């Protein structure tokens, strides 16, 4: 296992629902370290680039609307196997499949507004950290 950095974002639904504290607490309790954290409202162009792999999906426009609908909290999280560990903490993309005890399993009700983003591999983590933190 190696020390990794991953990119995490608390999405606008969770910020609106005042879940920032609970999500940050879960990340810290897991032993991972929050290295950078900032609240910001995303530009649509940034969201379109971030989700470019989904551009042909019928939900793409709605996803971009949702992700720009209010502030997000973006983070760089580091630790042993941080990428995979955060994906485990987050739970499945669709909250219906996300296990109880995971962030999505406990806080998300809708696949379109599923509370949190986390990089899916180390390569994308590096790209996303650059994209969102420069
Ligand atoms: N998404 C959606 N509808 C779907 C599937 C995905 O709105 O049917 C959104 C959801 O917010 C998800 C994001 O698109 O988190 C990116 O999807 P991806 O498959 O990359 O999953 P993730 O890596 O976020 O678990």
TrEMBL record:
Family per similarity comment: Belongs to the NDK family.
Lineage of producing organism: Bacteria, Bacillati, Actinomycetota, Coriobacteriia, Coriobacteriales
UniProt-recorded name of the protein: Nucleoside diphosphate kinase
Annotated signal sequence range: none
Keyword Cytoplasm: no
Any GO BP: UTP biosynthetic process
Residues where ATP binds: 11, 59, 87, 93, 104, 114
Domain of life, per lineage: Bacteria
GO molecular function terms noted in the UniProt entry: ATP binding; metal ion binding; nucleoside diphosphate kinase activity
Organism of derivation: Collinsella aerofaciens
The protein's Enzyme Commission number: 2.7.4.6
């Amino acid at each position: 296992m190696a020390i990794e950095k991953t990119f995490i974002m608390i999405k606008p639904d969770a910020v609106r629902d005042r879940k920032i504290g609970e999500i940050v607490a879960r990340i810290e309790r897991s032993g991972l370290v929050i290295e950078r954290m900032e609240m910001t409202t995303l530009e649509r162009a940034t969201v379109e680039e971030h989700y470019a792999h989904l551009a042909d999906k019928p939900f793409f426009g709605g996803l971009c609307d949702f992700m720009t609908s209010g502030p997000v909290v973006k983070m760089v999280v580091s630790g042993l196997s941080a990428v995979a560990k955060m994906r485990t903490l987050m739970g499945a993309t669709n909250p219906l499949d996300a296990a109880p005890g995971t962030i999505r399993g406990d806080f998300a009700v809708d696949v379109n507004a599923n509370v949190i983003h986390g990089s899916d591999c180390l390569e994308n983590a590096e790209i996303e950290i650059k994209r969102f933190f420069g």
